[in-house]
Write a sequence for this structure.
């Protein structure tokens, strides 16, 4: 099994990293500092297949890299990780370009929406990496277990390289996603990222975060 890096120590990174460990992967969690308390606590909780380091350490380590950072900080985190450390690697981007500066609900960052996307900007920043946008349209617990939504939901993926998308499909299937739609190249991430406003409002309206989208066809 390939070594995996998880960039980000928040709830999303913790949930993704823990599930990958359960599946048998060796995982390094990356953050701004090598001794990040959240990362160290995660390592202590999940066992010997886990480790922690800086963004750069993790990007060097991982053969597959998950971007679990906040969307507003993703580009900075990738620069800190070292552009060269993404060369030839599949980068699974699950972040969203959300602006929380005016409170809840957040809005989409204007320059990263409609005619652009965070996924595209990450791909531009790491031209020799293979960015695949997916999992950004559900909460983190549903990300790693599709059945938590209460049904058989649909997951989208977007990316420029077919081989990378096939690699990501394998992980999605390990996360219990069986209905997967390939939307096309990375520009189609504009659509999936713009699903976040309706996801957030559905969450507020129902008080339930354990739901997902289904394309009936």
């Amino acid at each position: 099994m390939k070594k995996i890096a998880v960039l980000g120590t928040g709830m999303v990174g913790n949930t993704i990293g823990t599930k990958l460990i359960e599946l048998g992967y060796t995982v390094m969690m990356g953050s701004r500092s090598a001794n990040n308390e959240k990362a160290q606590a995660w390592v202590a909780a999940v066992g010997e297949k886990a480790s922690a380091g800086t963004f750069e350490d993790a990007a060097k380590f991982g053969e597959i890299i998950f971007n679990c950072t906040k969307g507003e900080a993703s580009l900075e985190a990738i620069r800190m990780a070292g552009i060269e450390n993404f060369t030839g690697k599949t980068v699974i981007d699950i972040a969203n370009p959300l602006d929380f500066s005016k409170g809840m609900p957040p809005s989409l960052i204007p320059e990263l929406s409609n005619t652009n996307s965070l996924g595209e900007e990450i791909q531009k920043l790491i031209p020799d990496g293979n960015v695949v946008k997916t999992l950004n349209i559900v909460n983190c617990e549903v990300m790693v277990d599709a059945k938590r939504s209460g049904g058989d939901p649909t997951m989208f993926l977007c990316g420029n390289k077919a081989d990378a998308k096939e690699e990501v499909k394998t992980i999605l299937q390990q996360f219990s996603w069986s209905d997967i739609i390939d939307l096309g190249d990375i520009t189609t991430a504009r659509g999936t990222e713009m699903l976040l406003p309706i996801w957030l409002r559905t969450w507020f309206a129902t008080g339930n975060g354990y739901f997902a989208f289904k394309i009936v066809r």
